Amino acid sequence: MGALLEARAVHTPRSAYQHLRALAATHGISRSRVDQVVDMVGLQDVAKKRAGGFSLGMGQRLGIASALLADPRSSCWTSL
Predict the structure, then answer these.
(1) Host domain of residue 62
(2) Within a domain: residue 3?
């Protein structure tokens, strides 16, 4: 399960996709999940753009995508 504390907590030179891939890689989350959350939050058109140039709304979408990366349905916690 994810949480969104600060929507603009991103390394600004990275693209949205690079940011999400880095988070996914450090948490053992697949690249296909990154693609899913990009689609979920509507970042398809800007995913390859530098996150530092995003509007407040797009930055918030990226933050929400970051929080959604961990899919609770596929987590080890669901078997408890």
Answers:
(1) 16-71
(2) no
Ramachandran category for residue 63: left, alpha or beta (phi over 0 → left; psi -120 to 50 → alpha): alpha
pLDDT for res 77: 44
Q: Return the structure tokens found at 75.
A: 């987590």
Q: What is the chain written as a DSSP string?
A: ----S-TT-S-TTSBHHHHHHHHHHHTT--HHHHHHHHHHHT-TTTTTSBGGG--HHHHHHHHHHHHHSS-GGGSGGGG-
Residue 11 falls inside a structural domain: no
* Residue 7 located in a structural domain: no
pLDDT one-digit tens code per residue, 22-80 = 999 998 999 999 999 999 999 999 999 999 899 989 998 999 999 899 876 655 444 44
Give a yes or no: residue 43 inside a domain.
yes
